[in-house]
Amino acid sequence: MLLRCVVELLPRFAYRFSSEAILHKGMAQVLADAGIEFEHELVAGPKDRFDFLLPGGIVIEAKVRGSMSAALEQLRRYAARDDVSAVVLVTTRYWGRAQLVDELNGKPIRMVKLQGDAF
Questions:
Q1: Which residue, 44, 52, 77, 87, could crosslink 48 as a Cys pair with Cβ 3.0–4.6 Å?
Q2: How far is the CA of 75 from the CAs of 34, 48, 81, 119, in angstroms?
């Protein structure tokens, strides 16, 4: 299953980044090298821009800054969409260590904690 593959794949690598945009480049390379198709920075509506959209409606959202509550609100909004089947939150934040929620609006939510940036 693609969702499980992505959740297991992304934390296997060390990422050097000083911004979310640079982290996106590293993540894009990992996904491409694994043969996973994606659209990057897809504008999905007035309030929604998916960092990565994978086949089958899987959204990957990366957070290197911000609060847990703000991230959860964004996940809720994405999970409410008919064109989204699952959301993966990739973060370097301390709160990323725990699986905060398993499901929102009947859709799987997965959290991936990466090591902090190297700068």
A1: 44
A2: 25, 10, 10, 28
31: containing domain: 2-113
Q: Which residues touch 54 (CB under 8 Å, ≥6 apart)?
A: 2, 6, 31, 36, 37, 38, 60
Q: What is the pTM of this model?
A: 0.90
SS3 101: coil
Q: Is residue 92 part of a domain?
A: yes
Q: Which residue has the tokens 């398993």?
A: 102
Structure tokens at 83: 């064109």
119 within a domain of the structure (yes/no): no
To which H or E segment does residue 8 belong? Answer: helix 2-9
Instruction: Report pLDDT digits (tens) over 74-90.
Output: 999 999 999 999 999 99
Instruction: Tell me which H or E stretch contains 2.
Output: helix 2-9
| CATH number of the domain residue 17 falls in | 3.40.960
Is residue 118 in a domain?
Answer: no
